[in-house]
Write a structure and sequence with these properties.
about 700 residues, alpha+beta, Immunoglobulin-like, TIM Barrel, eight-stranded parallel beta sheet, seven-stranded antiparallel beta sheet
């Protein structure tokens, strides 16, 4: 008998666990599955010296042997459970205090394949091995939590009395400006312009945030700083009174034409008067208490690689030179207690020595010299502990440009190991979340960061696939628009560098303060506000594509993070245009309700938050994946084509019975969204679906 089969028949055989003509069994590839969620690794976050159980799933009676390959040793697994469709194999391991990495070898007859974080493969690569790190735990409250990023100056002005005043001081050579028109788009040189948003404004909008479904607030920097972005910190010990509380106001604005900040007596009083500083810290305490009362958590931004030239340790602006209760800064005096905090090249340059190292050469961002100062090292560790401890009780840190800290990678890792110990000793349930681009593996070994802002394994692949745009709107790649192979390749490659505890808390953003807003990327316009003008950011946008992105954000592994105003339809090119004010009174109400409903759905169906993720199918401009565990199975479909499509999809490998129905629990299309839709019969483990153009659909399995 001729032993030839076309590709379609081979695919059919694999999917349906049949046999080729000579009766040699083939792998049912779709049935093979494991990951490091709690269903397949128990305990999910083991401690050192725990006994660990690892499980692997196969089709029923389809496999001769499953082995776990650990450190080049094959451990044969035992079949411990079966149901109608699957066999489950398990192996118990006694851990020590080292991480383990492993993959699986599956054999039936003479056939052999391997399984790692990519799925079924024919050649192994240690990079893609599964990882378990004894003793590494991330906070339960952050796993899958819906986060909301607030750039405080642009969110809500709740207290006009603390607003930065025009001519209050100079910043980068020019007087600061108070923007009177809340709705005005940011200027091209926006850094010294202030709209007046503050912590009282956030308190005023807590009902809104709670109603939206926010579980965690992430604040851009809050500490004393002369810029609106506050990544050039002036005093790590205090919340800036301009976003906090000013109880003693006095002094004068800078005279017209004057640029020396030592004469900015109003500013000096506001930011060095301890009455204002302590009142601002008390307001932060009040905000955190209110968030906790509502079941929310608060993450603050730590900028520890560099500070600002206004910083009290340096005092280039001579703000603290004569302020009561402050030591002389290292710029001012050779005898400053902070001299070793900075690396000065001219050892004879005092007083007013400007030869210090700046981050990337920026003299407004002095590089902190940890290697040269144990005092600085200890001070910043104290800051790390202080804000996650009573009475402040923040729930963790987001770390700015964390991989840049120090003058070498060895020191960088040493610092973050010590920082982790300090923070976790003070508050074991605090999260440590870093800004990082590129491979995260070196820092996610269980002894430094908990996780990262997830650019490589979330923001970038989704942006390229749905819009073809680079995340700054600086490039358009038609070859990446709709390229499902590239999407899955990027997701599999970059997510492999996350241990599961890190992946489950990774900050999954579509937009933030450093990149263009996702809604603007849907217009395929390459440029920035300086080249195209801010109005272009709103032209030709496609809300249906944005809704697809949000559905993916809310159904992917990690912590979906909304950049303030995205939910209200805010547009913007990359910074500063992405820092527009929240459009109070001019919101896109349908978009807000859409976010409320998809967040509610995420909470209602636990598999969307805590389940495994599995590839189901893909095609040009089409993705299908599942989120599932024993108690629930959901299928997510995205059709980014400009035309309707029809697909036949296997769903039984998500754990659904082979007969039943899948119900539409959420769908989007060009006109909007709905919480219901067509039911689909599951026949032989398959469904046939029709999808309108530019849509996303969530299907949920229900028993007949």
């Amino acid at each position: 008998m001729e032993n030839r089969l076309d590709l379609e028949k081979i695919k059919n055989l694999e999917n349906n666990q049949q046999y080729i003509s000579n009766m040699r069994p083939v792998f049912n590839r779709r049935a093979l599955f494991t990951d490091t969620t709690a269903e397949y690794v128990s305990p999910a976050e083991p401690k050192s010296y725990d006994e660990l159980t690892i499980r692997f799933r196969t089709a029923k009676n389809n496999i001769d042997r499953v082995s776990l390959v650990l450190e080049d040793t094959n451990y044969i697994m035992t079949k411990v459970e079966s149901d109608k469709h699957f066999d489950f194999y398990a192996l118990k391991l006694s851990l020590d205090n080292r991480k383990i990495t492993y993959h699986f070898e599956i054999q039936t007859g003479r056939l052999k394949c391997f399984y790692d974080t990519r799925g079924v493969v024919h050649e192994v690569n240690p990079y893609y091995d599964f990882v378990v790190i004894p003793g590494f735990q991330t906070p339960g409250w952050a796993k899958g939590a819906v986060m909301y990023q607030i750039y405080v100056d642009r969110f809500c002005n709740g207290d006009p009395s603390n607003d930065v005043q025009t001519n209050e001081y100079c910043y980068i050579g020019e007087p600061v400006q108070k923007v009177e028109d809340w709705g005005r788009n940011p200027a091209q040189m926006d850094v010294r312009e202030f709209y007046g948003g503050d912590l009282q404004g956030v308190l005023d909008k807590m009902d809104y945030l709670q109603d939206l479904g926010v579980e965690v607030i992430y604040f851009n920097p809050l500490f004393v700083s002369p810029s609106n972005h506050k990544y050039d910190i002036q005093d790590y010990d205090y919340i800036d009174p301009h976003i906090g509380k000013i109880v003693e106001d006095g002094g004068e604005l800078l005279p017209q034409g004057q640029k020396e900040n030592r004469l900015a007596t109003k500013y000096i009083n506001r930011v060095t008067n301890y009455a204002n500083l302590e009142a601002s810290n008390r307001l932060f305490i009040q905000l955190v208490e209110e968030a906790h009362r509502r079941g929310m958590h608060v993450i603050i931004d730590g900028v520890f690689n560099h500070c600002g030239s206004f910083n009290k340790w340096l005092d280039r602006e001579r703000i603290y030179e004569n302020a009561e209760g402050f030591e002389k800064g290292a710029y001012v005096s050779e005898d400053s207690p902070y001299r070793s905090y900075f690396d000065f090249h001219n050892q004879n340059g005092w007083p007013y020595n400007n030869s210090y190292d700046g981050w990337w050469g920026h003299d407004t961002l002095p590089k902190l010299n940890y290697e040269g100062s144990r005092e600085l090292f200890d001070y910043v560790l104290r800051i790390g502990r202080k804000w996650v401890s009573p009475p402040y009780n923040a729930d963790g840190w987001r770390l700015d440009v964390a991989a840049d800290l120090g003058h070498s990678q060895d020191f960088n890792h040493h610092f973050w190991q010590e920082f982790r110990k300090a923070v976790k000793d003070a508050n074991p349930n605090a999260i440590i979340l870093a800004e990082h681009y590129g491979n995260t593996r070196d820092w996610l070994q269980g002894n430094e960061w908990d996780t990262v802002m997830n650019y490589d394994a979330f923001m970038e692949p989704i942006t390229w696939f749905l819009t073809g745009m680079e995340k700054h709107s600086d490039d358009y790649r038609e070859d990446l628009l709709g390229n499902a192979e590239s999407f899955w390749g990027a997701m599999r490659h970059h997510s492999a560098s996350f241990p599961m505890p890190s992946w489950q808390v990774a900050m999954n953003e579509l937009s933030n303060h450093d990149h263009s807003r996702f809604l603007t990327r849907t217009n395929h316009k390459v440029g920035r506000t300086g080249t195209l003008g801010p109005q272009a950011a709103e032209q030709g946008i496609n809300k249906a594509v944005f809704r697809e992105a949000v559905v993916m954000q809310m159904t992917w592994v990690g912590a979906p993070t909304i950049y303030y105003g995205d939910e209200a339809g805010l547009c913007g090119f990359t910074d500063p245009d992405n820092r527009r004010t929240y459009p109070w009174g001019k919101e896109d109400r349908q978009m807000i309700q859409f976010h409320k409903d998809i967040i509610h759905l995420r909470r209602e169906h636990d598999e969307l938050r805590n389940g495994s993720l599995k590839y189901v199918d893909s095609d040009y401009n089409f993705l299908a994946y599942g989120r599932f565990h024993r108690k629930g199975q959901s299928l997510i479909l995205v059709n980014n084509n400009d035309h309707a499509i029809e697909k036949q999809l296997f769903v039984w490998d998500l754990g659904t019975p082979k007969h039943g129905r899948m119900k539409t629990v959420f769908r989007t299309d060009e006109s909007g969204y709905a919480l219901e839709g067509q039911d689909y019969e599951v026949i032989g483990g398959k469904i046939r679906v029709e999808l309108p153009k530019t849509c996303a659909v969530i299907l949920k399995y229900f028993e007949e």
